[in-house]
Write a structure and sequence with these properties.
heterodimer, A: alpha/beta, 8-stranded mixed sheet, B: 14% strand
Chain lengths: 269, 100
């Protein structure tokens, strides 16, 4: 029986797909058979971030509508044999995402995978709803910025009332906060909400803080999940996230400004 | 703080403003969530039904809103009465009897 993890946020552009790619790669590198599923029907991008865009033949909707088997649609990652990608359809409408179909695909994936990472689209419409509906765990990706925090709070309300677990009266979805694009320097200058501020408002278990990093753009430019860049701050922060998710006690890093040289300190950076 | 930072330091702390705005907003939106969304809609429908027994008002002439601040909750009912608020015939036979 697989654990279903939804990567969600409400707001767009906060790093859901970057996180889905890093999380699924990280879990797979730890030896867990992992599938990552793109729920953004009509606007797929996970394939690009995972670097498998030229290998897409069939997609999620094809499987739901019986036009291909699940195995035909799953793309095996070339870097890690435990990782498979199920791309979204680029041509269909999001209405093609039928709840029964999604459930059937997730059930079939559960038979052979340990983790199923659902990359949610932005918004709270059908795709986002179905991405979170069957989840066991939710990673709420949030930027230290007011509109993102507000949308995350809204999404938490939806997770606790509109999920399958809520409707069946089961244990609630385990919710985690992942703060991304964090800039300790701007926090210090009073320009950005701090991790404590965001936690105080959302009252969520902090899974990790990903610093604002140039490595994220270069990772997506080259189609390599940023967690593979183990020299980078963002890559290391995601690796910590994986350890914490798997239950290892890992202290938070990248919360403080880097030590600067004398000159930049003198002139205030 | 750097030498130049000393001169820049009177900048307002916008993160603190953001936090305060968010706290108020989130608290407000969470309480809204607890109310059933049908509640106001149903109340509006029922009120309209009662009002229409006496006054002929349009379907959209009535609005019900709930406002909340720290100390109190305000249920606001707003009915726009038509220019001539002539009592609406309660039963259709009254017009038939008028033709006699």
């Amino acid at each position: 029986m697989a654990r279903i993890i939804v990567v969600t946020s409400g707001k767009g552009g906060v790093g859901k797909t970057t996180t889905s790619a890093a999380l699924s790669m990280g879990l797979a590198l730890k030896g867990h058979r992992t599938a990552v599923v793109d729920f953004d029907i009509g606007l797929r991008n996970l394939d690009l971030i995972m670097g498998c865009e030229r290998r897409v033949v069939y997609d999620f909707i094809n499987v739901i509508q019986g036009e291909s088997t699940l195995n035909q649609a799953l793309i095996r990652d070339k870097r890690c044999e435990n990782l498979y990608v199920l791309p979204a359809s680029q041509t269909r409408d999001k209405d093609a995402l039928a709840p029964e179909g999604v459930e059937k695909v997730l059930n079939e994936l559960s038979e052979t995978f340990e983790y199923i990472v659902c990359d949610s689209p932005a918004g709270i419409e059908r795709g986002a709803h179905l991405a979170m509906y069957f989840a066991d765990d939710a990673i709420v990706v949030t930027n230290p910025e007011i509109s993102s925090v507000r949308d995350s709070d809204r999404m938490l309300g939806i997770l606790s009332s509109k999920s399958r677990r809520a409707e069946l009266g089961q244990d609630p979805i385990r919710e985690y906060l992942l703060l991304t694009r964090y800039s300790p320097q701007r926090v210090k200058q009073g320009e950005m909400l701090s991790v404590e501020d965001v936690q105080e408002i959302l009252a969520l278990h902090l899974l990790g803080v990903i610093p604002e990093s140039r490595a994220v753009l270069s990772a997506s430019n080259s189609g390599n999940p940023v967690i593979l860049d183990d020299k980078s701050d963002a890559g290391q922060a995601y690796a910590d996230v994986i350890r914490r998710y798997l239950g290892e006690d890992t202290p938070h890093r990248f919360l403080e400004e880097e030590r600067k040289g004398l000159l930049s300190r003198l002139f205030g950076g | 703080m750097g030498l130049l930072g000393y001169f820049k330091s009177n900048r307002p702390n916008s993160a603190a403003i953001a936090k305060e705005r968010l706290q108020i907003l989130v608290a407000h939106e969470r309480t809204d969530k607890d109310k059933s969304p049908d509640y106001l809609v149903n109340l509006q429908r029922d009120l309209l039904e009662v009002v229409r027994r006496y006054v002929n008002v349009d379907q959209d002439a009535i609005t019900v809103t709930m406002e909340q601040d720290e100390s109190r909750e305000v249920l606001e009912l707003n009915i726009v009465l038509p220019d001539e608020s002539i009592p609406r015939p309660v039963r259709s036979y009254s017009s038939r009897s008028g033709r006699k």
